[in-house]
Write a structure and sequence with these properties.
single chain, alpha+beta, FAD/NAD(P)-binding domain, D-Amino Acid Oxidase, Chain A, domain 2, 2 domains, eight-stranded mixed sheet, 11 helices, elongated
Length: 438
Amino acid sequence: MANPEKFDIIIVGAGVVGVASAYYLQKNNPDKSILLIDRLPAAGQANTAMSAAAVRNMFASSTNQLLTDTTIKFIEHIQSELDHDLMFEKTGYLWLLSEKKFKHDSVQMWMQRMKNSSIHYQVYEKDELKSMIPGLNVDFEGDEEAELMNLEQVDYGLFGADCGVLDPTKLVEFYLEEFKTMSDVKPMFGVNVTGLTLVADPPLDLPGEPHVWQNKRVGGVKTTEGDFKADTVVLTTGTWANELLDPVGIDSRTKAKKRQLFVVHAEDKEPLMDILFSRGFNDLGCIPFTILPSAGVYFRPQLQEKGFWVGCGDKFGRAYHYVQQDSYDNGESSYYENSIYPVLSKYFPGFQDSRPVNSWGGGYCYSPDAIPLVYKTNGIIAANGPSGSGIMKADAMARIADALYRGETHAELFGGKKMEANALSLQERKVEIESVII
């Protein structure tokens, strides 16, 4: 394109963080022209759609507690006050823990930090859990197979009632529609951003600039539909951030891992229905999002389908390499059969002989400390690295990105809570290492 079209802001990536950023940037900078670009045919169709679609404020770091608690409260506000149904259901989160793990310093510190931040939680003991969850196996004494699999018994449950699940597509839809009502620039979908454009600052109109001795910044994007100029490029591409930042010499400090979910139906299977509709945890009369004590296996209830989404947060052994294909990415059936199922059916024998009816894979974008990165550098504002919890941190991350754009020292999160705008930056980072990662 000989004369690239010019915008004040270009946002690359229309997942939940991207559309939330578009909303706040346009809302607080109404005179700015903002172009939202995504390579897929619609917003929120990549890793946002492939997630477990769950939200929790039960983190060990006060930073993640603040990001998630304010975001969840805004999600509640959207659904109850703005009357936009996100299918947000407060199922709660339940960590099943052995006595050794529960009494470990890291878990005790986690609970103390939640108490300090007014994050509500409740502790259940073994007998209470057995009475509330039909078919829960809490003790593997004498089970040689369980010992071989390194399975820990269940002694405690750590429960957070303010956590839950939602429909991520509906959350994306809210932010996108609100953005579109304020913007005169139509979003571009099905357009792939192939690179970032570097420009001299100031330009001297020299052949081949910018040269090494010139100041430079990112001044736009290259796409399959031509080049576009911008004063600021906001990068919210998650697992694809390195593909754009590496070529211009910016270290995103994030890596990606593949994560998978498997759908198991409970209907017509009485033992699974009994587990699904475990009473006493929430007003929905269902089992919470549940994390097993061993191997990183978890599941969440899916009430509309009368079933479960089952996954695993495996760490060592799972490569830091994943780029989602444009086509639908099925989960690895052998991974469920050989890794997840043996653990799941030990703790919940009701899952025996149950197999997935559907599966998919997405990508998690991890930062070294498992806290998101939101920073401004050389014409770029990058918001990525939420470590698989983008949905539950998106609103706060987007508000911080907007504060950085406007040059504010603090970002105001939902409910009036404030956070230093540079707290999640590369150079002035002020966070603790997160230890509660699923």
